Amino acid sequence: MAGFAEQLWESIFTPGTTPTLLLATNVTFASLQLVLLALLIATYSVHFVALSLISGGLWWAINWFATELRAAQEKEEAEKARAEQRPVRQGTDDSETEVETIISDNKPKTGSKAVEPVEKTGDLKLRAEHSLESKSAASTEDEWEKVSENENEKDK
């Protein structure tokens, strides 16, 4: 038992899954399922069925992930072994850089021209800015001037 606890402690600090860690995980989930079954029998509460389904799904997902991780590691090791068995050719560039080939088509590009810059057609007239007043204040003054001009014309 001391050897298992020591292996479990060491497996925590090693990357990936280890058989000791998977064994401890499976024993823990099996114990949890037994406890949930005992509580279901003792209380007849549907909550323990839901908890059992959730923990069972998590248990399955952890084992599935460990299996997929093991398969990926075996595949990677097999590729490394094949790469080591290949003969090394002299005078060739064995760099692992990827080269992209750009294939150009001679078709004209069509699309929206809404984002293209528009040529200036005339001079822009800047509105007189008042240093202390906002733009809305300037436009309000213009409106009041028009109203007062209309009143003056009515009086005549």
Number of strands: 0
Order of helices and strands: HHHH
Helix segment tally: 4
Basic shape: elongated
Structural class call reads mainly alpha
Q: How far apart lie the N and C ends?
A: 113 Å
Biased composition (Basic and acidic residues): 75-87, 116-133, 145-156
Transmembrane segments: 21-42, 48-66
Organism: Xylaria arbuscula
Region (Disordered): 75-156
Word description of this protein:
The protein is mostly helical and 156 residues long. Helices cover 62% and strands 0% of the residues. The chain is built from four helices and no strands. α2 runs antiparallel to α3. The termini are far apart. One of its GO terms (cellular component) is endoplasmic reticulum membrane. One of its GO terms (biological process) is vacuolar proton-transporting V-type ATPase complex assembly. Keywords: Membrane, Transmembrane, Transmembrane helix. This is Pkr1-domain-containing protein. Pfam families: Pkr1 (PF08636).
Topology (SSEs and partners):
Layout: H1 2-12, H2 19-43, H3 46-85, H4 135-155
Helix pairs in contact: 2-3
Supply the key terms.
membrane, mainly alpha, Pkr1-domain-containing protein, elongated, single chain, 156 residues
Summed up, what is this model?
One of its GO terms (biological process) is vacuolar proton-transporting V-type ATPase complex assembly. With 156 residues, this protein is mostly helical.
